[in-house]
């Protein structure tokens, strides 16, 4: 279904809103039009939407996320070290048992084997997750994806006669 053609007033509003720094999505919402309609009209008028701020915000967010992943990896490794120390430390073992469900506790020199196995499993999980977080940033492939997308967009622009934004 074809959309209703833009009026001259709407085209002027697009010019004015663009000049005021509004993005394509904002203009589309404000005029109650589809984003693609606004984008085509802006292109016809000779306007382009600068994506530099979006790129900067995206890069900043990615850097923040990388820092959070690095901190989490460090915290997980610290947790693993603290947990591993418990393998050889005195502890209290306890149970509820018998027909009267009586609580019993005893101090032992180190955890029983089953508890040591559970501790080692948890330590292994923490170390594995820390390594995965570290590997994610080392091999996320963002450069390859950006290069692939850039090549794709350049090809589309060349085919359709558009020039990339400066």
Describe this structure in words.
This is Helix-turn-helix domain-containing protein. It comes from Nonomuraea mangrovi. Residues 6-40 form the Transposase IS30-like HTH domain. Pfam families: HTH_38. InterPro entries: Homeodomain-like_sf, IS30-like_HTH. There is one protein chain. The model has no long low-confidence stretch (mean pLDDT 86). This protein is mainly alpha-helical and 166 residues long. Among the domains are: 8-50, Orthogonal Bundle (Arc Repressor Mutant, subunit A); 58-87 and 113-154. The protein is elongated, with a radius of gyration of 30 Å. A hairpin with a 4-residue loop joins strand 1 (91-97) and strand 2 (102-108). It has six helices and two strands. Helix 2 (24-31) crosses helix 3. A two-stranded antiparallel sheet has the order 1-2. The two termini are 34 Å apart.
